[in-house]
Amino acid sequence: MEIRVLPIDKIKAAAYNPRVDLQPGDPEYEKLRRSIEEFGYIDPIIWNERTGNMVGGHQRFKILVNELGREEVEVSVVDLDETQERLLNITLNKVEGRWDDEALAHLLEELQAEAADLGLTGFEADEIESLIEEFTEPPEDQLGDFENRELDTNEFDESQFGCKCPRCGFVFDSEGE
Fold first, then answer.
1. Domain locations in the chain?
2. Where is the ParB-like N-terminal domain (predicted)?
């Protein structure tokens, strides 16, 4: 991988870029801006040296230039023909990993316990709470007192039941109908 520092006037936004052009104030734009401010510029823009086009990183570029005043940016350089460039652009925008929701929930819960700013993750607060709740066991004192025992049908009067299971012969209460 080749990384270069280029002046911003050498980097052209790809006119064909199919992603929505986020604007300041858009939630996703603000999440990305906040992430760059907190963690730095750690995911370089991909730039095609043959065409001068950005292949990936249009939103990061906009934030670096318009919000942070950068006049030069580090880019990862590729050398692609126009067809390969457009294919890579789509691939970069489409191919995303899937979450292991349980592992993500536990990681978010750990970070929450450390009082980390979970807003930096890009997840909304309600998404975080929902994930954590889904995979968190309730405390022992909230589990209830349940007895797992075999049901003895002889304890019940058959007149209380109305529907009979064709498989096992159990007769169910008809009042629920």
1. 2-94, 101-137
2. 4-94
C-alpha dihedral, 93 to 95 to 99 to 104, nearest 10°: -50
Write the burial class of residue 91 (CB in 10 Å: 0-12 exposed, 13-18 middle, 19+ buried).
Answer: exposed
- State the Cα–Cα distance between residues 167 and 162, nearest whole angstrom: 15
Task: Compute the distance between CA of residue 26 and CA of residue 63 in angstroms, rounded to an integer.
Answer: 12
**Token pair belonging to 105:** 């929930």
Q: What are 113-138's pLDDT values in tens digits?
A: 888 888 888 788 888 888 888 887 76
Calpha distance 119→147 (Å, rounded): 43
- Per-residue model confidence as pLDDT tens digits over 37-61: 999 999 999 999 999 999 999 999 9
Cα(99)–Cα(102) distance, integer angstroms: 8
Closest listed residue to residue 58, CA positions, set 10, 20, 106:
20
CATH class of 2-94: alpha beta
Burial 16-44 (b: 16+ CB within 10 A, else e): ebeeeebeeeeeebebbbebbeeeebeeb
Q: Quick check: 72 and 6 in contact, CB under 8 A?
A: yes
